[in-house]
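Students often ask why inverse folding is considered easier than folding. One informal answer: many sequences map to the same fold, so there is more than one right answer. In these notes we will look at a single instance of the problem. The structure comes first.
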C-alpha cells in the first residue's frame, strides 16, 4: 500500500472512532429514558457496525507476513 493510502485509512479510522464515542455517549443518554428503546437499539446496531468497520480498516494497516 502506498503511504497516501495508509494515511487515508488512518484518517478514516480516527473518524470512525469519534463516531463510535459519540454513539456511545448518545446511548448512555437514552438509557435514562426507556421510552426511546427503539432508537437506543438502532444506535447500538450502528455502533457495532462502526466497530466492525474500524477492525477491518485496522487489519489493512497490519503488514502481511511472508509465509
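Output (designed amino acids):
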Amino acid at each position: 500500500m502506498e503511504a497516501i493510502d495508509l494515511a487515508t485509512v488512518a484518517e478514516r479510522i480516527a473518524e470512525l472512532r469519534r463516531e463510535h464515542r459519540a454513539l456511545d455517549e448518545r446511548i448512555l443518554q437514552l438509557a435514562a429514558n426507556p421510552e426511546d428503546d427503539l432508537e437506543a437499539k438502532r444506535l447500538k446496531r450502528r455502533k457495532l457496525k462502526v466497530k466492525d468497520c474500524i477492525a477491518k480498516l485496522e487489519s489493512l494497516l497490519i503488514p502481511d507476513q511472508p509465509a
